[in-house]
C-alpha cells in the first residue's frame, strides 16, 4: 500500500479518464473467443494477458465466469450481445434493461467493462431477418445504459465485415452496398449522435486466400513490396490493412460521416487451413502478427487519415477446436489450447507468465528500498503503456 500511495500522482497523470466514452484506450487488443473445449480457464487467461501486457479484450458474449475472473485486474473488456438475442432486445426495452443490469452493471466497477458490441457482422450477413432489428437493439441497449447512468462509461458498437461494401479497391472508391445502405445509414446516424466508432473486421488473409494469383502476399503481410497507388487520393499504400481501413473511411465519407473513427475489431492470419486456403501457415501467421504488432506500436494513422491512430483487436487469443467452417477458423490463435505460444512474436506462454509473476512476487517480498522499487515499477509500467 505504501508503494501505491507513493506513486499516486503518476497514476493520475497516465490514467485520468477522458470526458467522452471510449471502449478502446490503447492501440493493441485481442479477441478472446471460447468456441473450444480445451482452452485455459478464465483465471489462467487473466494471468496470460497480464504477462503479455495486453489490456484491451473483446469477448463475444457476457459470460459471467469471464467477467468474474477479470474483476480487479485492470483489464478493459468489451462484452458482446449475440446475434441470437437481437430480435428480443429490439422488440422489448425491458429485456434490454435487464440484460444490461445483469451482464454489465452488476459487475461494475470491479470488472472494467468499457463497451457492448451489439451483434457481430449483422449487416451484409445471410440472416436478413436481423438487418431490420439491429438498430432497434442498439438503441434499446444504449437507452438502458443511459437509464442506468452508464452511458458515459460503456460505449455501444457493432462490428461489420467487408460484405457491407459494394467496392473497396482502390481505397478511394470505398462505398457501402446499396442493399446494406438503407440499414447502415440510420445506424451510422445514431452512432454519430452517441459518439460511437465504425467497427470493421478486416482480414488481408481472406483477401489473399481468395485471390492469391493477383495479390502480392508481401503486401498482405506488411513485408517490403511496391504496394499500390491510389490515383484518386494520390497516395501510396505499402500494406493491405491500411488500404482496407481507408476504404472504410471512404465509404463513410460517401455516406456523409466523414468525422467517424474506424476501429479494427478483428484482424489476424490463420496458421493452418484447408488445401484450398492459400497462405494459411504458421510462417505467414507469425509474419503478419509480428509486423502488425510493430505497426500498431508506432501509433500512426493511415495514408488517408494520418491523424487517426490505428487501433486493432487481434483475432484471436486461442486456437478454437470447435469452430465450424474451414480449418483456418480453428487456427487463428496467438496461443495454443494449453496456453503455449503458437509462434514467437514477442509474447510468452502461460507457463512463462506464471514464472514471471512469481518472480515479481519474490522481489516484492525481499524488502527493496523505495528508490529501487520506483525504478523497477516504472520499467515494468512503460512497456504496458507502450503495447496496450
TL;DR of this structure?
Its EC number is 3.2.1.39. The chain is of the alpha/beta class.
Please give a structural write-up.
The protein has 388 residues and is an alpha/beta fold. The chain has a single domain, classed as Glycosidases (TIM Barrel), CATH 3.20.20.80. It contains 14 helices and twelve strands. The protein has helices at residues 2-6, 8-15, 42-52, 64-69, 86-91, 93-103, 134-147, 178-194, 204-210, 217-220, 240-255, 282-297, 350-364, 370-387; strands at residues 28-31, 56-58, 76-81, 112-120, 155-160, 165-167, 175-176, 198-201, 228-230, 235-237, 262-267, 312-314. The strands form three sheets. An eight-stranded parallel β-barrel has the order 1-2-3-4-5-8-11-12, surrounded by four helices. The chain has a two-stranded antiparallel sheet with strand order 6-7. A two-stranded antiparallel sheet has the order 9-10. Helix 3 (42-52) packs across helix 13 and helix 6 (93-103) crosses helix 7 (134-147). The radius of gyration is 21 Å and the shape is globular. Its EC number is 3.2.1.39. Keywords: Glycosidase, Hydrolase, Signal. It catalyses: Hydrolysis of (1->3)-beta-D-glucosidic linkages in (1->3)-beta-D-glucans. It is an enzyme of class 3 (hydrolase).
